[in-house]
Amino acid sequence: MTITKERKTKETSIELTISKGLEASHIDTGVGFLNHMLDLFAFHGHYVIDLKVDGDTDVDDHHTTEDVGILLGQAIAELMEDKSSIQRYGTAYVPMDETLTRTVIDVSGRPYLHFEADFSSQTVGTFDVQLVKEFFYALTINARLTAHLDLIRGGNTHHEIESLFKSYAQALRQAASDSSVSRLPSSKGVIEA
């Protein structure tokens, strides 16, 4: 199943296509760090995402980040419309060097987000880390999930945020009972000793 959605406001114009699969995603939000996080989300969630955003990034990255979360959440809800075969619950712990994150998801139809993360710095490059919670709130509420995200340990802000995106994707994949696949679980194509 492939879901295609659009969202147009005075602040953003978004075109999104999403399906389950292992092919490469093509993501262009106009926000480099967000592109990187969404690419990891797609990889670890077993999603193929084609996303093009024209947003008011001359103001800041807020509207783009939030609106992508809204549309992505709506699309994921449509992908999971048939809940007859899902596991419903998913849990993932993701370590990334010094960082450890836990995400627990219930495909409950009752939207709720608990987000506990004290980031080590306020920005990653030019990306305002406050937008991470905004993204996950928009995604979770619009996908109609209950999600608990906890940054258990941190150190490097890039690692902290990356582990949140990876753990959320892994927990969601488990909760939606994505079919098993044989593939090395690394976006780099190698697991280092």
Automatic annotation (TrEMBL):
Main location, first listed in the record: cytoplasm
Localization in the cell: Cytoplasm
Annotated pathway: Amino-acid biosynthesis; L-histidine biosynthesis; L-histidine from 5-phospho-alpha-D-ribose 1-diphosphate: step 6/9
Record's catalysed reaction(s): D-erythro-1-(imidazol-4-yl)glycerol 3-phosphate = 3-(imidazol-4-yl)-2-oxopropyl phosphate + H2O
Pfam families cross-referenced by the UniProt entry: IGPD
Membrane-crossing segments per the record: none
SUPFAM superfamilies named in the record: Ribosomal protein S5 domain 2-like
Domain of life per record: Bacteria
Keywords of the record: Amino-acid biosynthesis, Cytoplasm, Histidine biosynthesis, Lyase
E.C. designation(s): 4.2.1.19
Xref: InterPro entries: IGPD_sf, ImidazoleglycerolP_deHydtase, ImidazoleglycerP_deHydtase_CS, Ribosomal_Su5_D2-typ_SF
Family statement: Belongs to the imidazoleglycerol-phosphate dehydratase family.
Protein known as: Imidazoleglycerol-phosphate dehydratase
Species the sequence originates in: Alkalibacterium indicireducens
